[in-house]
Amino acid sequence: MPTPFRHTEPLPPKAATGRVAEIYEQITRDFGIPEPAPFVVLSSAPELLAPAWALMRESLIAGPGGRTGKEVAAFGVSQANRCRFCVDAHTMLLHATGDHALAERLARGQEPQDERHARVLEWARRTRVPGAVREPYPFPREETPGYLGTALSFHFINRVVSALVTESVLPGDAQRLRPVRSLAGRSLSRAVRRTAVPGAALPLLDGPAPGPGPRWAAGTPVGPAYAALRTAALTGAGLLDADDRVLVRRTLRDWDGSHPPLAPDVFPGRRERPGARLALLAALAPYRVTAEDVAAWRRPEHTDHCLVHLVAYGAFAAVDRVETSLSAPDAPSLAPRTAPHTTQETS
User: Fold this and answer.
1) Is the bond preceding residue 212 a cis peptide, omega within 30 degrees?
2) What three-state secondary structure class fits 115?
3) How many C-beta neighbours within 10 Å does residue 141 have?
4) What one-character-per-residue DSSP string does 289-339 give?
């Protein structure tokens, strides 16, 4: 059976032990999918897997706000990022919420009939463009941690998936068929409609408590999950030299949210700066990561653990840019905006 992964070979979930096995157990129970590729692909780096799952769980699944509305937000972010895998997955998950008509309207490229869902969808799409959306948001203020957490979670997950997972949610792209996606959604309905207790993913995080997180998280478990993912993802900066780190930060600072053109190739050359190229592709156009890009960067000491960390670093560099523009102007920084100088080249 063909592997759903690109450029990496994570261990099968059945081989998982310890904390990774605990995470899979919680994913199966709360997400309803035993081996979801977006998380399996992160399992080569458990220190990334735990907070990535925690942020999605605590915002989309257990956070404030209705599940259907947050699924619309996840769909819109995935659409803006051109992540076909996630667009298809959230079409099926909308079926799981019971809103079959909405799911099929989105699958056909139509706008929601419900005005609230239409506003959320447009807001979610626009979050890719730094500075394009400000308060008031199209949901009640008390639901901000759930919606912002969901949007930022998928700005990260979309990029990891587009870089390292194939586009097919189901074998043979079966999810493109209406009866199949409807049936798949119905099979997930029990898990999607089950009430999830907030905070249950936080004990799975590694190391000391990460702190309350950004102000918009309003003291909910979304905040520590976001803070933990940010800390873990930005350690991937240690796989780049100082000049490459500066290039990534400068490029993301000037990024306007657009998808880079195919020609001319605006990314650093594979021969001259392969690490910076891979990180910036992950940030801005992860669906364009090729086997040649990965091979140009990889050295004998670069394991799958390293590759996942470098992709996660580039992905979160983009998330950081989006989050900064979504935060209130007077919101305090979660951490220094420069990436940490770590030494994980042989992670």
Assistant:
1) no
2) helix
3) 11
4) --HHHHHHH--TT--HHHHHHHHHHHHHHHHHHHHHHHS-TTPPPSS-SSP
* Residue 63 pLDDT greater than 90, yes or no: yes
Q: Active-site residues: which are they?
A: 86
How many other CB atoms are there within 10 angstroms of residue 196's CB atom? 20
Q: What are the tokens at 90?
A: 């959230």
Q: What is the pLDDT of residue 1?
A: 59
- Residues 238-267: pLDDT tens digits? 999 999 999 999 999 999 999 999 999 999
Does position 4 have pLDDT exceeding 70, yes or no? Answer: yes
- The answer to whether residue 28 scores a pLDDT higher than 50 is yes
CB of 45 closer than 8 Å to CB of 94: no
* C-beta separation of 215 from 327 below 8 A: yes
- Return d(Cα 311, Cα 327) in angstroms, integer: 24
Instruction: Scan for tokens 């995470």, then name that residue.
Output: 23
- Which residues are CB-neighbours of 285 under 8 A, at least 6 positions away? 259, 260, 267
Task: Kindly calculate the radius of gyration of the chain based on its CA atoms and give it in whole angstroms.
Answer: 19
The tokens for 163 are 């870089």
Question: CB 177: neighbour CB atoms within 10 A?
Answer: 13
Burial class (CB in 10 A: 0-12, 13-18, 19+), 113: exposed
Tokens of 101: 């008509």
C-alpha distances (whole Å) from 297 to each of 33, 167, 240, 260 are 33, 23, 10, 21
